[in-house]
Amino acid sequence: MNKWIGKGRLARDPDVRYTPSGKVVARFTLACDKRKPKDSQQQTQGKQPTADFIDCVAWDKLAELVKNYCGKGKELLVEGHMTSRSYEKDGTKRYVTEAVINHIEFCGKKDDGGAPANQGASNGGGGYFSDNDAPPIPDDEIPF
Question: What CA–CA distance (Å, rounded) separates 14 from 115?
Fold first, then answer.
């Protein structure tokens, strides 16, 4: 079973692009705080919390939603699956592991890391969006 659920804040504004066939894809990084056992919390008082930075990809309607309503700092709960792919750049083969998102739920306050300035109000605090019937996207359609 390959299912990933994460809650965190966008580490930067999403990168939205279009494939040659016109499909929209949004890439973003979700900073998810690490939980620590209670024993280690007492030992590390005063230290900064640590986070995992998870690369995420959303397609079609979810990508449009991310483009229109999400900016750096926006808190999201996402669900999807992990995938790995490789590509060649400058003669070097590179490998990428990322979460392909098929559900998004907005968390936090309405003005918490809201939409980019030109997009109007964000749908904060509980909006749930799904892209269950999205067809798989072939690797040659990925624009990066």
Answer: 11
E-assigned strands of the chain?
4-10, 15-18, 24-33, 51-59, 75-89, 92-106, 128-130
pTM higher than 0.85 for the full model?
no
- DSSP sequence for 9-22: EESS--EEEE-TTS
Strands 128-130 and 92-106: antiparallel
Q: Is residue 22 in a domain?
A: yes
Residue 124 in domain: yes
Q: Is residue 143 part of a domain?
A: no
Q: State the CB neighbour count (10 A cutoff) for residue 31.
A: 16
- Reported as a single tens digit per residue, the pLDDT across 73-113 is 999 999 999 999 998 999 999 999 999 999 999 997 766 55
Domain holding 100, by residue range, is 4-33+50-133
How many independent structural domains does the chain possess? Answer: 1
42 located within any domain: no
8 A C-beta contact, residue 26 and residue 50: no
| 63 closest CA partner among 34, 26, 109 | 26
Give the domain CATH number at 23.
2.40.50.140
